[in-house]
Amino acid sequence: MHKTILSVRNLSASYGPIRALRGVSLEVREGETVAVVGANGAGKTSLMRAISGILPLSGGSASFDGIEIGKARAHQLARAGMLHVPEGRGTLQSMRVKENLQLAWEIRPTDVTLEQALEQVYARFPRLRERSEQLAGNLSGGEQQMLAVARAIINRPRLLLLDEPSMGLSPLFTNEVFKALAEIRDAGVSILIVEQNVSKALQLAHRAMVLTHGEITLEGPARELAADARVMASYMGQEA
After folding, report:
1. What is the pLDDT of residues 194-218, one digit of tens each?
2. 141-153 and 114-124 helices cross at what angle (nearest 10)?
3. Are strands 190-195 and 33-37 parallel, antiparallel or unpaired?
4. Phi, psi (5° rounding) for residue 192?
5. Is pLDDT at 90 greater than 70 in this prediction?
6. 195-233 per-residue burial string, b: 16 or more CB within 10 A, e: under 16
7. How is the beta sheet containing 67-68 ordered, strand by strand?
């Protein structure tokens, strides 16, 4: 049994009087991919913001590899190997693609040189090699999402937090991004992904859970949830 790298216990968080999360518990083990799916407004982004140290906890606890998240700053968690790809991309628009990647590489020291790290990223995302000298702000939405993922993986994270990686992407770019995520998963990186594209998320994940109005309402092996008509019908508001 692989050890638990992320532990969330009875986590609650609020935006003023609005309770976004209500006693959420989950864990991610080393080398495991866990998906959290749910409709708009379910609390998925709030969950990621709370786990990454951006949204203060109002109750419960969360820890990453023994580091108490409520007492750590986001940059400390990043240096320890927890990288967050936020909703709506996460790139520095006025900098070139290569500069975006270099800054991300500098966040967390590893034994891999910048040149080696860039080559690994470009092998996974050939389009970024072609665009390396372009400003990030001039990339298409799909290319910006690729860059956001590339920024997160260039220094070999231990845990990758992905918030709606397919949002606003065409089916073609969605397929490309999820193909790269599958390669990252198969390389042994732990992943927690929140995603509205239920079928893609469940194909990627080992385990999954449904978040409804800030609470976990269903969980189990991703393959079983993918075959459960309730996930599409009752929880997602889609036809089974």
Report:
1. 988 888 999 999 999 999 999 999 9
2. 140
3. parallel
4. -120, 120
5. no
6. bbbbebbbebbbbbbbbbebebebbeebeebbebeebbe
7. 18-29, 4-15, 59-64, 67-68
Cβ neighbours for 175, distance < 8 A, ≥ 6 positions apart: none
Q: Which two tokens stand for residue 9?
A: 């216990």
Structure tokens at 43: 């609390």
Cβ atoms of 87 and 47 within 8 Å: the answer is no
Domains plus CATH for the chain?
Answer: 4-89+158-235 (3.40.50.300)
Note whether 142 and 169 are within 8 A (CB).
yes
State pLDDT tens for residues 8-17: 999 999 988 8
DSSP output for the chain:
-PPEEEEEEEEEEEETTEEEEEEEEEEEETT-EEEEE--TTSSHHHHHHHHTTSSPPSEEEEEETTEEGGGS-HHHHHHHTEEEE-TT----TTSBHHHHHHHHHHHS--SS-HHHHHHHHHHH-HHHHHTTTSBGGGS-HHHHHHHHHHHHHTT--SEEEEE-TTTT--HHHHHHHHHHHHHHHHTT-EEEEEES-HHHHHHH-SEEEEEETTEEEEEEEHHHHHT-HHIIIIITSS--
Residues 6+ away with beta carbon under 8 Å from 200:
166, 174, 178
Looking at the DSSP assignment, which residues form a beta bridge with residue 105? none
Whether residue 65 contacts residue 81, with contact meaning beta carbons closer than 8 Å, is answered with yes
Spatial contact of 177 and 208, defined as CB atoms under 8 Å apart: no
